[in-house]
């Protein structure tokens, strides 16, 4: 088993690996770690390693047919200024899947990557 001080890994199934890499590195501050496009690439942001698996990847092939579409799960990215991030991403042509929702813990908004996987931007109330 990998040491617990390494990355937390999340796999997202994507239609187009290079499009996904471009989205995460251009808009959300990830850096490319490795690429075997068009099958697979992984991008990193802090302790999160996001595995981007295209249709030809072993990760995608291992997925049962009834679980190939994006679900309600999402990665959760903490930001310092949610309004500034919304403005920056909207200016870059990124669209959102929800309005800003506020609660006792903070504020959040949802967007999707080009394959439809959910991403939550969150600003703490602290």
UniProtKB/TrEMBL annotation:
- Can you provide one Gene Ontology molecular function annotated for this UniProt record? methylmalonyl-CoA epimerase activity
Read off the InterPro entries from this record: Glyas_Bleomycin-R_OHBP_Dase, Glyas_Fos-R_dOase_dom, MMCE/EMCE_epimerase, VOC_core
Residue ranges annotated for the VOC domain, each copy included:
6-124
GO BP of this protein? L-methylmalonyl-CoA metabolic process
Keyword annotations for this protein, in alphabetical order, are: Metal-binding
Highest rank taxon of the organism: Bacteria
Question: Which PANTHER family does this entry report, sorted A to Z?
Answer: METHYLMALONYL-COA EPIMERASE, METHYLMALONYL-COA EPIMERASE, MITOCHONDRIAL
Name the UniProt record assigns to this protein: Glyoxalase
> Whose protein is this, by species?
Planosporangium mesophilum
């Amino acid at each position: 088993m990998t040491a617990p001080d390494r990355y937390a890994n999340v796999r997202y199934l994507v239609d187009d690996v290079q499009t996904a890499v471009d989205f995460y590195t251009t808009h959300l501050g990830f850096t490319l770690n490795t690429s075997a496009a068009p099958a697979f690439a992984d991008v990193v942001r802090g302790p999160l390693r996001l595995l981007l698996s295209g249709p030809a990847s072993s990760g995608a092939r291992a997925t049962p047919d009834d679980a190939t579409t994006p679900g309600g799960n999402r990665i959760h990215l903490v930001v310092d200024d949610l309004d500034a991030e919304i403005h920056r991403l909207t200016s870059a042509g990124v669209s959102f899947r929800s309005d800003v929702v506020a609660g006792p813990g903070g504020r959040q908004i949802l967007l999707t990557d080009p394959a439809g996987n959910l991403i939550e931007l969150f600003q703490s109330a602290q």
